[in-house]
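Let's practice the habit of predicting before peeking. Look at the sequence and jot down your guess about where helices and strands might fall. Then scroll down.
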Amino acid sequence: MSSVRNLSRRAFLARSALIGCSVAASPLLTPVSFAAAPWDTRLVVIVLRGGMDGLDVVQPYGAPEFAALRANLTSGVNNGALDLDGFFALNPALAPLMPLWHREELGFVHAVSTPYRDKRSHFDGQDLLEAGTPTLSGARDGWLNRMLGQLPGVEPRTAFAIGHGEMKLLEGPVAVADWAPDADLEISPQAMQLAELVMQDDPAFHAALSEAMMLTGSGGGAGRGKPHVKVAAFAAEQLRGDTRVASFSINGWDTHRQQGRNLNRALERLSDTILTLQSGLGPEAWGKTAIVAMTEFGRTVRINGTGGTDHGTGSAMVLAGGAIRGGRVLGDWPGLEEADLYDRRDLMPTGDVRAPVAWLMRGLAGLDRGSLQRVVFPGLEMADDPGILR
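Done guessing? Here is the structure:
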């Protein structure tokens, strides 16, 4: 369904005017008109829920310990992985993204994590990732919402939280729009004709009805097919217009068993998503877009008894888009000797996952460093600019 927090009286009346429309499923909670944001770049944040194994996605095959640690997984360039820079290789399930790498529109940051440590709970890890704070104590809103609060001219349509799952990183006092695929108006053709007749003399109400049909897919706006492709297609459609921020999740990264098969499926969804965004945005908007995909924690460096990996600490983040200066694997590589590991079991995080995102915000929307470190990501030390943007 589609909705906008902080519903106005007029939007409520517009929604109520639809005869036969299911109140719970009505998409008319979106504003009738929107103001363009005062910046022209786009930011897409994808939460990879379940704990992505960064060591399998961006494989450090040049590390002498890697082959022995991952002996039961088909890793490395001799097993189909795609060489990136002579040290790191890309999981072959992401092969469709290699043209972006060669155009320097795809990059990675390795050995990063949130401040979360040791307990390795999906729920707490994801909550902290979306809160963007050092701890969960007192966290009441998400870092994307706090970012919007630092910018002028923000309207609900400026940012979209997309999908069926809750997107806590957009929760907060700044109103944003919501949409989920396969929303159903539950309205008959006769009721639709009556609604159009009632609204024909009110341009604002008629616009709201037209938008409702578009959001539910009746106008073809959301696309058809796999849910993650629908989400990406809808996001791209909005980002071609006034929307400047979109966020959604991709599930399926909890690879405790049969990692080779299960991770490939998740990576294929991620690849589909990025390429759908690229094609849907078109060259002009794609050139102004930065996509960041991040996860709550990584996984153990050693394989468990069921051919998978358990909850860990350090992982990798994915960067894509025409605004990204890619073709690089960023980050301070910690090594894979046992003494180099976190708790002698996990990839040691050498960077805060929030810092690259803060630098993206600074470059895309012009936020000052003080606001980013105090308000958007409290307690963050951004360190030096890694030069993520073109």
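How did you do? The radius of gyration is 22 Å.
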